[in-house]
Amino acid sequence: MTNESDIRRLRVYRYKRGDGGEHFDEFDVPVGPHSTVLDALRWVQLHRDRSLALRHSCCHASCGTCGVQVDGHEELACVSSVQDHGKEITVEPLANLPVLTDLVVEMSGFFARFPHEHPIIRESQPAPDVEHGDAMQAHHAEVLLHHNHRAAPPGADFMRLEDCIECGLCLSACPVASTSQEYVGPAALAAAERLLEEPRGVKREDVLAWASRPEGVWRCHVGFECTEACPTDAIPAERIMALRRELTFGGDKDKESKR
Amino acid sequence: MSEPAANELPGTAERSLPGPIHHKGPGPAEAGWLEPRRRGHGGRALALHRVTGVVILFYLYLHLGVLSMLLIGRSAWSSFLSLVTAKGFLAFEAVLIAAVAYHGLNGIRVALVGSGIAVRRERVMLWTALALAIAVGVFAALHILGAL
Amino acid sequence: MLRRHDARVLIVGGGATGAGLAHDLALRGLRVTLVERGELTSGTTGRHHGLLHSGARYAVGDREAGIECIRESTILKRIAPGSFECNDGLFVAACEEDLEYLDPLLEGCTGAGIPVEQLTPRDALRLEPNLNPELMAAVRVPDATVDPMRLVLRFCASARHNGADIRPYMEVTELLGQGGLVSGAAVRDRVTGQTGKIHADLVVNASGPWSGQVAAMAGTSVPMTPSPGVLLALKGRFCNMVINRMHKSGDGDIVVPQRGLSIVGTSSWVIEDPDDLTVPEDHVERMYTEGSKLIPALRHAARRAAWSAARPLVGSAGAGSGRELSRTFQTFDHRDRDGVDGFVTITGGKSTTLRGMAELCADVVCRKLGIDEPCRTADTVLLPHTAFYSAAAA
Q1: Based on the structure, what is the number of domains in chain C?
Q2: Is C336 helix (H, G, I), strand (E, B) or coil?
Q3: Which of A97, C133, C238, C379 is deepest in the core (most CB within 10 A)?
Q4: CATH number of the CATH domain containing B91
């Protein structure tokens, strides 16, 4: 599947605990028209350096494990096409999380930021509801209309997995997260907003109290880097703004009845 | 685990050590937000907002410092005038006016969007703020030059 | 901390099989260590489309597999609540020829105890507006969709919570032992680069399509053939239910929704080395062609990803496409097969039956170690996948 004449130079970040040294290794990798950064990294692992540690699982942007920085931009390696990059490609681990080894970051800190309740199944298929008049809902509806091709008639009773695949790209891209290890970050806040949208047994006041802590929603500086980096439709920035709107203007029962 | 394993797996202790945390951008960790090459429009807007904020703050102190010179007397006033009519200072003022315009307009954008209002139009608002700030800056520059 | 026994078991392989077994054995109170050379589920498990089989796909050709699936999928829904999109599935007849499969399908499902309901094409289209409007028949079955990695992580979370040492990024380089007895493994830790030895009373080879390679480290063999297939993820969620083609297993006979994507699968061929996976473009094209017979809009949907995954099929090499081999699983005690004790291989199977596979293998493990503990996994609700990161490591 690889083209012998298309060779790319991969600069890969290396770090092994215990010997402490952080450095870059360079590898010349043959690639093909459909090769992904993950394909290139696995080629290195199989044919050049078996000690290279990589995270990957699904190969189709659904598990969220293969997040890396490619030339400084957050991407999922499994869907990052080599053809979209140049002759030299730099691959580094995600930012703002501790590096375990090579391109693998420790995810325990990522998950520790989430609100305690973290369901991954939506009870309802979001039906586009453009008459609601709510800008965030309308934006969300727009996204869904485009992607879901009206797969469910409004009000149909289908379940679905939450959009967020817990990849950490948003946390890595967030400019605030790079100055504050306490900030809970976009993914956690988006998950909290989903709990407002669809409580599934969680109390609204608890979610709002959790979100309005100093290291919560008010730390966001409206950078929108998170939605930019997000590989799915989780739209963290829009959800953070919706949370902030709830905290600023919402909380009264009239608003509830309009939904 | 308190119970010692009959064979401690290699690397066990190292796995629980804190690892290095990368911040985007060169320099010290706290400067991560400043690196423009690795950011999209929103991150750059934020960086510019902080930079203009620092510039405005610097100007505030400068302004207060300069005004305090007036307390000293007539000679201070003359040296003050020669300072503020210098070309360099006038150029800085044009930049400052653009900075105030950007910081104020983007500030309105951040306040609105950050309260969940007009979220879908945040990008349009940013370009508007930038365009207006540049226009104001250019207008100010021309006006200052015209007055020379 | 549930450990009641001193017996140490080393599991090689952190996919569905290894994780299911680690959970089962940890619940029975054994000392479990699981090593996986990459991220958990980075072998075959993570790559599958996420179908939780109702068993209908096997009800006609392989009734035993059909019965296994409906039993295990029901158990999984009970022990892992909140992990599944329980939206059911449809078998859709896209042409006249498919109609011949309708009665065998209905009878096969009924015979295997799989709830089945025939729908009119109009009802099917009302449920799934993007289906081929020319469809001729539709049957509803209790298929479901799952995130394969996160489901397995739940087993690992519970195992870890019960004292198992789950160790990703640790590669087995050799099996240790002499005189026909395996006593452990030599490992290389990819986090530090250090090497070491793990001693165990029993080593279980749960390395999926790599089981042949691991078995060879002990001078043994397993009748397992790696059989890859291509999968194609397209942008757009074109269905909420799993859409199956109403004919016998063939290429591109299924579309599974995965969040905002639609996964079309799969194809089948056989290989020697599971690390040498290619993605033949003609297979990708076949996915587009066959998939659009079920959902026409797929023809023009943008490609998110195309990849291959190697199924570990039980049966000897020499098979043709791999589809003839059964997808059931087996545990091999190498003392009986190869005269090597202390070493057991579990291979074959599919994600849906991971718990059942683990139960049978754990029974063999306990019998060999002289431990009398019943399996408790069918009634133990699993921890959420996030607990894997916060559960105390052993």
Answers
A1: 2
A2: helix
A3: C238
A4: 1.20.1300.10
Neighbours of chain A (3+ CB pairs under 8 A): B, C
- Is some CB atom of chain C closer than 8 A to the CB atom of B2? no
Q: Is residue C249 part of a domain?
A: yes
> Taking the CB of residue B57, how many other CB atoms lie within 10 A of it?
10
Q: Parallel, antiparallel, or unpaired: how do β-strands C137-141 and C89-93 relate?
A: antiparallel
C200 occurs within a structural domain: yes
Name all domains of chain A by residue range, CATH numbers in brackets. 3-106 (3.10.20.30), 112-123+159-258 (1.10.1060.10)
* Chain B residue closest in CA terms to A143: B120
The Cα A39–Cα C128 span in angstroms is 35
Domain that holds residue B100: 41-147
CA A199 to chain centre: 22
Three-state DSSP at C95 gives coil
Radius of gyration of chain A (CA): 20
pLDDT tens per residue across span B12-26: 988 988 888 988 754
Give residue C247's domain range. Answer: 88-144+225-313
Name the residue of chain C whose CA is nearest to B14's CA.
C192
**Interface pTM, i.e. ipTM:** 0.93
Q: Indicate the average pLDDT of chain A.
A: 85
H-assigned helices in C113-258: 121-127, 148-161, 211-216
With the C-alpha atoms ordered C362, C364, C365, C366, is the resulting torsion angle positive or negative?
positive
pLDDT of residue B33: 65
| C205 touches C72 (CB < 8 A) | no
- Are C82 and C132 in contact, with CB atoms under 8 Å apart? no
- Using the beta-carbon criterion (under 8 Å), do A224 and B43 form an inter-chain contact? yes
User: Would you call B11 and C194 a contact, using CB atoms and an 8 Å cutoff?
Assistant: yes
In A62-197, DSSP assigns E strands to 67-70, 73-76, 88-92, 99-101, 104-105, 121-122, 160-161
Q: Residue C65: inside a domain, yes or no?
A: no
Cα C204 to Cα C345: distance, rounded to the nearest angstrom: 6
Sequence-ordered alpha helix ranges (H) in chain C = 16-27, 56-59, 63-79, 102-112, 121-127, 148-161, 211-216, 281-294, 334-338, 354-369, 387-390
Would B97 be classed as within a structural domain?
Answer: yes
Lowest-pLDDT choice from A18-27, A147-156, C10-19, C254-263? A147-156
CA distance A53 to A45: 8
Domains of chain B: total = 1
Chain A hits for C171, CB-CB cut-off 8 Å, are: 50
Cα distance between residue B11 and residue C289, in whole Å = 49
Last residue in a domain, options C285, C313, C341: C313
Would you say A175 and A221 are in contact if contact means Cβ atoms under 8 Å apart? yes
At C249, the pLDDT band (50, 70, 90 cuts) reads confident
